[in-house]
């Protein structure tokens, strides 16, 4: 699981950078930028842990998360504009991060013993809730992709994971398949501008 | 308690419908509508359970709640305008639902062992918090009634329940009395446009 | 610890008054004013307890907190304008209250067994989160001081406490030193209008 852990902490840093950059865009002061970066990075996992009752919440148990978030905020402050030029690289990390967050969140929920349907929802919450809070706090509409596809992708990935698990696929292969599925789906969705139909 | 359980799950669906319709009014996309419906339906009970530390939160333990919420969202999407014509019917379900949510929330808090004063507050939170979040998310002012009367009604109903319990009233009769009290009070408040005095 | 407990409950009342007055300024009705007063007073401790998993959250276990909050709201409603003339007195209570909230929050987190770095964050959250929610709910910018200095002060105070504890300082003296440090730092920051540099 070392590779999952690695992606998890790098993904956390990428989330912190995306939050801190959003705070910069809003011309917040230092404390505001750090707060938005922190909230974006920990929001999803924190919400999942609070709902499941897994407390103290996850990031409190391993200081590496705070260290990565602090680094992410520092990077955004020091190299703000340069980081934006790496948007494509970040998009890849962000995408793989989301996929990994979904799988890890789902696994945590299953461990606690909730029904798989709830676990799938908790996987999605882990992946998307940080970004939702970031957008609420910064009052902005996500630019590069529509959020519902983003959330739906995590939902479908979670369903795939549970189905494959039921079919007896070995956990390592299941994680790999699910992460690849979520990441590719999201890349395709952004590339071809997939959208859900407008119903209202 | 079968009748309470029945009102509880139907009330949950009615809350989901009210949330989903509010999301439609705001011209949200499919995911937004579903999210507002879900939040409205589970918001109150989730807040109560988190504050009391009763986790995993209630709706995770019985999938019937998610099923009813899903149905409510579907109904809102398929029959949106037709549902609005049934507003009076929904108002009745909503009113009885609020009364039942108050009593069930209060009972749950008492079971956990908090002081009755806290339990009365948790009953109110169970009943009104979902609607509060819905209004915050949708940025709208409730139309048919003023919220403070709504919350005050649940507070008075909770006090009545605790007093009657102390006086030795049998639980079944106590629930019936309290639910009728809250529901009638609310209907009268809406009908005669009762308002709290403006102090500020 | 009687003096700490006394400052804690008086500080809670001062927070409730500051919230209720903010609600009055926004011309909220009675229920709104009471809600903002309550949220401001309990917001920080509630967030800390939820994140740490110390539930039912703190103010549910000792009714004196609700009683003080109720008194604070009543005072704001009855003597609204007169209270404003005592702003200097309140500022002192508020400042000492924040310092005490920081230390008590930090101690509670340490008791639960999280890493000191996390405990320092939880001390800050205890002290500042109520005010943050009040400002979000009331949509206003704090007047007399910039928030980041406020939060940074609590952070530095928390670090001081942990360092002195490690150096073997007796707990009573440590609390006294930390509270005096936080309170003086805040008074100086407001008096001389200290600000963090603007980075964005």
From TrEMBL, chains A, B, C:
Quote the subcellular location field of this record.
Cell membrane
Q: Which residues form the Glycine transporter domain?
A: 6-79, 92-165
Supply the alphabetized keyword list. Answer: Cell membrane, Membrane, Transmembrane, Transmembrane helix
S-adenosyl-L-methionine: is it a keyword of this entry?
no
State the InterPro entries in the record.
Gly_transporter
Q: Which residues cross the membrane?
A: 6-23, 30-51, 63-84, 91-110, 116-137, 149-167, 173-190
Q: Which GO terms describe its cellular component?
A: plasma membrane
UniProt membrane topology term: Multi-pass membrane protein
Q: Does the keyword Transmembrane apply?
A: yes
Q: Which domain of life is it from?
A: Bacteria
The record's family statement is: Belongs to the UPF0126 family.
The cross-references to PANTHER family, in alphabetical order and at most eight, read: INNER MEMBRANE PROTEIN, UPF0126 INNER MEMBRANE PROTEIN YADS-RELATED
What is the protein named? Uncharacterized membrane protein YeiH
Which species is the source of this protein? Ekhidna lutea
């Amino acid at each position: 699981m070392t590779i999952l852990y690695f992606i998890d902490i790098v993904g956390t840093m990428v989330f912190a950078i995306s939050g801190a950059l959003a705070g910069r865009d809003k011309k917040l002061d230092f404390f505001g930028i750090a707060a938005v970066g922190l909230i974006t990075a920990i929001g999803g996992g924190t919400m999942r842990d609070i709902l499941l009752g897994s407390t103290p919440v996850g990031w409190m148990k391993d200081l590496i998360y705070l260290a990565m978030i602090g680094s992410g905020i520092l990077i955004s402050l020091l190299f703000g504009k340069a980081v934006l030029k790496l948007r494509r690289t970040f998009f890849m990390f962000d995408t793989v991060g989301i996929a990994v967050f979904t799988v890890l969140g789902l696994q945590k929920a299953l461990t606690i013993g909730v029904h798989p349907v709830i676990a799938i929802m908790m996987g999605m919450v882990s992946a998307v809730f940080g970004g939702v809070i970031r957008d609420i706090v910064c009052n902005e509409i996500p630019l590069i992709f529509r959020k519902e596809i983003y959330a739906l992708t995590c939902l479908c990935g979670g369903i795939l994971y549970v189905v494959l698990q039921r079919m007896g696929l070995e956990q390592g292969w299941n994680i790999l398949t699910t992460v690849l599925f979520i990441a590719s789906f999201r890349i395709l969705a952004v590339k071809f501008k997939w959208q859900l139909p407008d119903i209202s």
